[in-house]
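Model the whole thing, not chain by chain.
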Amino acid sequence: MDPVSTLPTLFGLAWLLPLVSFALIVLFGPRMGKAGIKAGYVATGAILASFVLSAFALFFVWLPNYDLPAEAHPATAESSAGGAHAGEVEHAAPREKPAITGDWYTLGQFGSLRITIGYYIDSLTVLMFVMVTFISTCIHFYSFGYMHEELEEVTDHEVTLPGGDHLRRRGRFHRFFQYLSLFCFSMLGLVIAGNVAMMFVFWELVGICSYFLIGFYIERRSACLAANKAFIVNRVGDFGMIVGMMIIFATLGTFAFGDVDADGDGTPEPGIFSQVRTPANHHALVVPDGMVKAAAVDKIAKGAEPTPENIQAWREQMEPGGIGRYAYWLWIVAGLGIFCGCVGKSAQFPLHVWLPDAMEGPTPVSALVHSATMVAAGVYLVGRFFPFFTPEVLVVIAIIGCITLFIAATIAITATDIKRVLAYSTVSQLGYMMLALGVGGWSAGMFHLITHAFFKSLLFMCSGSVIHAVHTNDMTKMGGLRHKMPWTAYTMLVGCLAIMGAGVPFAIGLSGHYSKDAILAQALSFKDANPRLGFLFYVAAGGAAITAFYMFRLWFMTFAGEPRDHHRYEHAHESPKVMYYPLVILAVMAIVTGWSIFGFGVQPLLEQARPAGILAEAQGVLWTGLVHPDEHLSHLEEFHVSSTWVATMTGLVGLFLAVVFYGVRMLDPAEVCNQFKPIYNFLMGKWYFDELYNIVFVQPLLFVARRVAEFDRQVIDGIIDGMALVTMIVAYVEDFIDRYFVDGFVNVFADWTYGIAVWFRGAETGRVRQYVMFIVVGTVVMFLLITFYLNYTFAGS
Amino acid sequence: MEPINWHSVFFLLFALVACGFALAVLMTSNIVRMAFYLVLSLAATSGLFFLAGADFVGAMQIMIYVGGTLVLLIFGVMLTAKGPFITMRTKAGEWILGAIVGGSLLAVLLSAATSVRAWQPAAQLPRVAQPTATRLGMGLLGVRVDKLAEQDPTRRAGMSGYLLPFEIVSVHLLVVLIGSAYLARPKKRAVAGPGETAR
Amino acid sequence: MNLLTQPVGVSHYLIVGAILFVTGAVCMATKRNALGVLMGIELVLNGANVNFVAFGSDYLRPGVIGLGLDGQLIALFVIVLAAAEAAVALAITLNFYNNHSTVDVDRADELKG
């Protein structure tokens, strides 16, 4: 099958099916069977069909047409054993990656600005499609079990009405699936988007879906606040993203990622990536012509011709105040702007505060939206835009990721809400991905994105299963549950092992083993090239230990030991099959995602999607001495072996500590807490970010708002009231004039008319003969008048 | 002594008959006599038409007016001729008022009729008048034969004749006949049946 | 001006028409019998007809552009109109007679103001 024509159709269908489902449920949702249960079938059917289409596209269209790269997965035992690939790596020529670009539909063209519905399909897109639809399908099935109480009238025990009763409301089963469908549509649109404008639209759409789903239990005040918080915090990031988009459009004149033949003349116009990494320059970073022209706008206004030679000359003016330097800064700001959007969406420091609160939504939502897919969209966008980022921007990304992963991991240690632990874990893992991308590990970061999606959705669904059983989020009220719900307990154990990165070094491991290993190897390689930035590696390694610690703390507190709350323990039960079957499937995926079998796997696919030119070593221009090493260098033995050991050992350390504290209870956590009271409080307070933002942003805003409201009420309202009073007085005067003068005049006129009519009435005698007389007299009088007074001359006289 | 102009003599005769019997219609109060005098007046008028060279119109005057319309009127007279209505006297005051108004109107009309030079008699009238029946008939059918050879474009107006008015008048007549038949139909009496209440 | 020897002109016809017209008008104004009123109308129409024929006559004014044939045609239409009018008026009169048992037009004053 011809992939160029087939793939857009397949993915377009897979993308639009959830939209169809959404539309159907919106229109007919409440009437779909008892309490809208069939809405669930519709949504699940749609996403299942999307998954089948995506998988078909991967296995029967993509793979037969595009060969995976020959160099085998380097993290597996067989390839890393050699370890002498350095020569090959250095001579690997920049290879054009297979990508299908195009537009389905042009919404409008305003000058050179084309707003299109386009696609950019490479193996990353394919991979994301399969991943998103697969996890979505699992979660749709899972939701049947988790949301079943929404099928009947619901009593919400967390909402107390003023009378003291709990709120009773109708179930919203169909609405849940309606939003899930909309979310799937938006997420797939975001993945397949062929230009920044379209991506931004779907970016906002997933944001609004997230808002709806966090606020699903809208009667709960906390859910309302969390939904608002998520939405508003995301706006901050999106503001930066709009700035970036504006710079890109203003300087490069296009939104498209790839080269799309927009005007139909047969030669494709260069997209963003081709302008930054021109094929003529072997796909190495170069300040794009558009930005140089934008920087030299003064010169061009004075008459300098923007010829290629001139542009080249301007580009090389890198001294302070030079045009090239200005253009480079423009480029950096554009990159940082785009990254700003990713910071908001992927909950990076300092905008990470919304994600833990977002756990107010139903657990399937947390699993799908707030761990596996939507929050990963920020990472995905950084990955997509990777060829655009200069080394300076990448360093910022790496540092932000590093800070995020550390902060989130420390907070997760002390959290007792099971979902919040997972939420902070998610933030931390997203920080890992950002760190990986920031240090130049494109495939490492994307790989972790994929593996994390599987094991984190698994973990969330397990936690949902637990919450479903014990009706609380508080881990201090759980314990010993593995006896009651073995499926959940052991699938969650698989998830914990996967996120910890468990495995036998150089032999085999769970998915997290490979991805975390790749990240650490790249960080180590980066540390080797930039010794001053070595802390990135140490924090990442330390974070791995903390990750293992808090994950197993969670597992032990929930499933091991003695039940702490016997009442809840007695009522706990294993979830229905529709809930734990997806758990098992995802557990299998969490194990095998990292493997490459006969050359097929996630990593070779990512290797195929690697943007052209990013394998070369990149030097910082403004920050001289900053070097982003070639990612393949991290496969060298000196980095790879040590990073594997580090990853495994840190994980084991974390696990060991967790066992000591919570497994066999050799040490009492409470004692440690007392000993480090200030630190414990600091962590329990989540580093007091919310309080800080409250003081720095919210309170001043509220203060200003109150003052403005007071001004409104006292001054503006006073003016308005005064004006109303004046209007009233004027109205009274006018009423008086109307009544006595205007009405009087009209009445007198009417009386006259009536009198005249009565007087003339006498002429109407009803006698025919008299009328004849009138006619004759009238004729005569008229004749006389015409003759004598108008001096009318008759013809011929 | 100029020779007697017989045309003028006959005009005088017919004019006196027409005006005299018209005044007689006005003067008499007997409705039957009025009808008779009207017949004579109209017939004399047709004579005036012949004298003016309008032979077809004169013939029509006799046929339609005298033969048709007045017969209709006489029918009306006979149908309503009950004792009190045959002679209905008019009050003297009305007579005086009518005489004054009519006299002033007559004065106005006469002054207009005699004051225009173009309407004064020609020096010599032609010996023979052209018959007009054919021309009128063609005019009613839509062809003005009298204007076919006309060179002056201002006089060619009305070339299209009177076909449309003729048709309209025909339909008009039909409508009038149906309408009058409807108006004059015998009164229907609403008879209340045994089960109905009278309306 | 001797009418026995001089030719007649349009103005003579107009005088006759005026007399007929005024007679008819006064007839309409003075007769109480509805049929008398009708006869007055006939006289008025007839007077008008005389004028039309006189104005349209080529014979009376040789070589002068008058109404021409149009005058006679209009006279014909007037005759037809008179016939139609007589029929309708008679019908109205008979109806009036049937309803009021009189033909006195002074009794028909129900439309007075």
